[in-house]
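As noted in the main text, all predictions were made from sequence alone. Below is one such record, for Dihydrofolate synthetase.
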Amino acid sequence: MGIELGLSRISTLLSKLGNPQLTSNYIHVAGTNGKGSVCAYLSSILSTSTDFKIGRFTSPHLIYKYDSVTLNNRPVAKDIFYQVENEIISINKRYDIGATEFEILTATAFKIFNLENVDIAVMEVGLGGREDSTNVIIPAEFNKEGKIVKKGVLATGITKIGMDHENILGSTLVEIAYQKAGIIKPNTVNVIDGTNEQDVLSLVSEISGKLGSENHEINPSSKDINTSFGTINLFESPLKGDYQLQNISLALKIVDLITPGLVRTYPSQTHISHQSILKGVQSTSWPGRLQTVQYKDKEILLDGAHNGSAAIELKKYIDSTYNDEPITFILAVTKGKDLAPLLSQLIKPQDNIIVTNFGIVDGMPWIEANSTDDLARECGKYTGNVSINESIEDILNNVKEKNVIVCGSLYLVGEVLRLIKEY
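Prediction:
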């Protein structure tokens, strides 16, 4: 079963599991680009600033399926993941629930967090937000003293919203934003990237207001980011790209906002300070995004840019790093993506394009790569230097050019990382 939004199946499935999603606190993050980075910052900062067990659920996985679920920033043990997943698949069949693959994956994450006594889980939305299976979580409840008396969502975050998955989420930014803003919960806090279009910001502010949620727009004016605990500079982040300024600022604002409730409720386990936050930022890891790797004797840049908005950011990095030198792009794109916004941003006439494929994605059988012939034809509109090779391993073994960039799909990036790991 492919993508099918809605909360009824996941709710039924979780009820058969004893509602494991009710045993943790959550930070829930939606957006088109940057939400994975925000989740990575959050889980890293919370791990260095508290004695809590921190879970994280992100998708799609990059190398292996179980990478989607982390405990204190390390992937859950493979045997635990598959043991829980198999139990959930069995329950799904026994009760004829008809849950999708992603709903089963989400339920697996919730069950693992429950079994592993996770205190705070950072949840990345899979698609949209309003009807995404991660959105079964409910808001936390606080007493008059500001202590958490019922676990749930402590804060939501919305990153930059762009055009993507229009066939499912809507054909305008506002329609897409309505879906993303569906994660905002009553009487909690929400933080949104303030560089979003004004129509998007207005809609999110309106939705937050109706729910009694405190809405914060972040738009830092410099690379020095002010927090309640002091200033953090963007250069402390190991993640590349100017756009990380927005992502790290959003994560830091969420930490600022949830800290008082954590201190009041769990004083002996909460040690948030400037030093602990700095350590968390410096320790953040988020592979596959402007990541430089070595394959045999070759240096390669990996980036999961797969839509127009992400291509703009990758182009900024290329322009600032490669001084208008020719680039060799190794490209594969998921079937159904609008190619023009991606390719028109990246490809120059002097660039060299090698169009390739990626294999079956574990747990996501509906995902397939665009036809290499179709992709090559589109690339040919921007440069005459286009070739096709279906084997990414063969390409990496034989590419002679410098300035090699693998992009167009996280699934392709994941295959390269898997090859490097196995090499």
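The chain has two domains: 8-282, 291-422. The domain at 8-282 is CATH 3.40.1190.10 (UDP-N-acetylmuramoyl-L-alanine:D-glutamate ligase). These features were considered when defining construct boundaries for the mutagenesis experiments described in Section 2.9.
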